[in-house]
Amino acid sequence: MNILFLMGKYPGIGGVEVVSTVLANEFIREGFGVSLVSFEQPTNEKVPIPLSEKVKFYPLQKPVSSATNVTKLHTILVGNNIDILINQWVVPYYVARLCSRAMKGTKCKMIGVHHNLPNSNFQIEQVRIDLRNHTDCRLVNYLRLFLVTLASRLSLRYTISQCAKYITLSPSFISIAQRFTWKSNDSERFCTIANPLTIEPYDGEHICKKNEIIYVGRIEYNQKCTYRIVDIWEKLENQYPNWCLKIVGDGPDRDDLQGRIHKKGLKNITIEGFQKPNAYYKDAKLLLMTSAYEGFPLIIAEGMEYGVVPLVFDSFPTVHDIIDDGLNGFIIPQPYSDDAFVAKMDLLMQNEKLFVNMSESAMLKAKDFSLEQIVGKWKRLLLDVINNK
Which pTM value belongs to this model? Predict the structure, then answer.
């Protein structure tokens, strides 16, 4: 079996790039032929996990829909005898259109993988932010929201229609995607495979844990709302002088976040920049996530693998797939509240026995997302798609 991953950019440090690397390497170990194409090839980013030398990499260029890309992608599909193209960039319709044109005259079938909440994206959320912040005329923003949402619906609807299978990261996303794209009568095309854990298994002891809280991810305000992490810590720092908060990541709002920390006079908080997170997972007791929306954030399950207890805002359905509230983590209910986070953190920071119990439960739960289980699901799906002529 020959597989091609199609990426918006590669290499990269984001979750999609890391997951694609891990799956590509595993497919190689299974004896598959694997190729990968991307439209951007950043020189300042490297995937934390090396891509197998047996994976063939082909750069494409922007604009995405160019005739040159159609011809080059077609040549790649034919030359590598590709059975299945895995589209990891499903939101823009023109990516699926490019793939459909390139696949003409081949046996190749396309699988689309949606790595986020189907009915939301950066453009939709930006308009919602403008509405909350009263940016520009309210009527104009409502019109923008209607038009951006409609365009997103039609774009995703087209992409799904071109796929043999459309994969969501959670069973709860299927009905959301069907309603959003008016495809409730096309249930056979929809399925679910979660992202796998991409870090080495951890079998350490809780005695190694330090009084550390971590945030791991992009420093960005539209989706990640990273400023909330600082606001939460402001309410805890004086009460817990022997604890510290480490922000592991980088992004467009790093300078602003650093300015907030300085303005508030906070001391026991550091921005670590982009780092391999394993060592931070090993040391930390608690992990915070305050995002406005997410797909299936691997960071939560990764932390749980290392016994880190997650506290996550209930702003995306998959949080309930990962965390059993009160057993292996806390899901903070909507609407968002700093105080709600602080109250749950107080419980864990003051009660070591409670932390240890929840930490052990978190490590058990993380096994649901092992690479072995997820790759097994992928193999069954790929065979099903190939065999359905």
Answer: 0.78
